[in-house]
Amino acid sequence: MTRVAPRVAPLAVIAILAGIAIGAAVFAFESWTLEDMHVYLDAANRLREGETLYSITNPLVAYQYAPWFAAVWIPLTYLPETVVAIGWSAILIAASFVSVRPLLERRSAGAVALTLLMLPILLFSSARSGNVQPLLIAAFVIGLERRWGPVAIAAAASLKAFPLAFALVYLVRGDWRRFTVAVGMTALLVAPMILFDLERYTVDGPRAGTLYDLSPVAWAVPLAGLVMLTILLARRRSTHAWLAAATTVSMGLPRMLSYDITFLLAGTTAAPVNPAEDEGTAGRGRSG
Fold this sequence. Notes:
By secondary structure, this protein is mostly helical. It has 14 helices and no strands.
């Protein structure tokens, strides 16, 4: 019995997660609402017509991102909504699979279990609602260790703020160029918000229970600990530095939705660093 249990337990977990995933799929395809996509399109329409971008007082339908993202959607406002819905859904579905591909390549029971946990969340919580999350996660998984990693961080931080914590890894490694690009681009993308009327801007909305809801102190203390852990692991150039940073991002969000946990994929599946490229960028960081 003791020899069989270690083999049966992973299979049991995988079976349970597979069952949950199937149930989530049935629900999602019966209610593929794309409500967040409509928020993006409505914001683009307001921007196109010269109306106030942050004018919606209902938190459930409020546009809360930097203006550039609404501007990107302006060309799509001239297309039939059905075409946009199909195209955007296809992009988010593809990005969801890209986000978990490194897990599938590991071919272990743990990787399969994590895939069955994360993929349904990306597909049936985020993509179903039309949220940009799968694209952000895919960009992190592919690009954090690449030259355009700072751009991915800046784009995500301009939309959801806390992903800027990923830049902490660059900073502690001494990669000043990447850190400066990430922070500088974030500032450039967010700065145009001051040109708009922010009187009705809101960050409220539906949320999962967080420590911030319990107490700001109960939220801040472990968050500070995660920041210190990220610094320690990055200083040691540990492969777990990205996971610590991803946990910091997920933990830091005071308004956490169910799919925000998928930020952890950026830490568990980020493409490994290219030694030659890393040595070059680290050298530039030290010399700068």
